[in-house]
Amino acid sequence: MHTDTGPRSFRLADLTWPEIAELPASAPVAIIPLGACEQHGPALAQRTDTTRAEVVADLVAQRMRPRVVVTPAIPVGVSEHHMDFPGTLTLTPDTLRRVVHELVLSLYRHGWRKIFVLTGHGGNNATVEVALTGLRAELTDLYIGWSGITPVVADLAKELAHSELRGHSGEVETSQAMFVDPDLVLADRLSRGSAALDDLGAAGRLSRSHPGIHFPVQYRTLSANGTLGDARQASKQAGDRLVSTAVERIAGFLTGLVELPEPARETP
Ligand SMILES: [Zn+2]
Known about the structure:
Elements: H1 17-20, H2 23-26, E1 29-34, H3 48-63, E2 68-70, H4 93-109, E3 114-119, H5 125-138, E4 143-147, H6 154-160, H7 171-180, H8 202-208, H9 219-222, H10 236-259
Parallel strand pairs: 1-2, 1-3, 3-4
The chain binds zinc ion (ZN).
């Protein structure tokens, strides 16, 4: 064990059990990265959300070393809305809920009481929220939180985006991909997707023009090439700002979480 700097790695899967035995005391926060394997337009790899979640989790753990551990990322999420495109893999919400539930239970049984789920894929949000609602009821001495990546830097995303419509595999996400792993991006295939409300059909326009109202539609309805926004406007510099700011803000929250006394278990 490297006692000054903590264990050899902040990745749980890289360590041996004797190195992990005392880890919940020195590294009280565990991050579970969630991703997806789904179409990301003509220029981004299907693993984009998984890699973004992994890299952001790693950068947070590096910044907070040795107080955070990172579990392996879950590489498939809830992507039903992308199934019209070749290659997308999806879990049902109930399967992902159970996976999150069982991973959190595993960490809990080994002593972790402060857990953070970091999803790179917005399609997982509702499922994560349901999973955490169940866990909070079951494990009353557990602190558990979650976030996406782009929503944590929504203000910056708004500033850096160029399109009226921005979202999946558009300039904001492509910029992040360029920064976290250039191998995710086929630079010569970057293209404009549905970047304005006028690019959408009737159902897509209805879905995107009433803030606060949820009306999910298949991605094919929103965009012929699977992109919302204009990926040609992406840059590695914008990705650096988005990712570095997200890391700083998530680490800020987790630092507060480290400092919180563990909650006492309620006896029924
Ligand atoms: Zn994505």
